[in-house]
Amino acid sequence: MSWLSKIFGGAPSEPEPLPAEEYKGFAITPAPQKTSDGFRIAATIERDGKTHHMIRADTLRDHDGAVEATMLKAKQVIDQQGDRIFL
């Protein structure tokens, strides 16, 4: 962090955690990761106390687009793999 950012307010704050969305009994919490190119698709998928961290190589320029793409990808993973994602 540069000395100017320390003087004028410090580092930008982390975005608020996004709410989970229920889908076919799974809880999907989108968590796009900031990269130099934009935002990487990432989410946490949970069910019955089990957790799967989904991270994809896809990146999108804006945060809202990354959230939307994350939800679509997570739902696709659930449709294709179901409970096998926890193995």
Automatic annotation (TrEMBL):
Domain of life where this protein originates: Bacteria
Pfam families: HlyU (PF10115)
Region of interest (Disordered), ranges: 1-24
Protein name as it appears in the record: Transcriptional activator HlyU
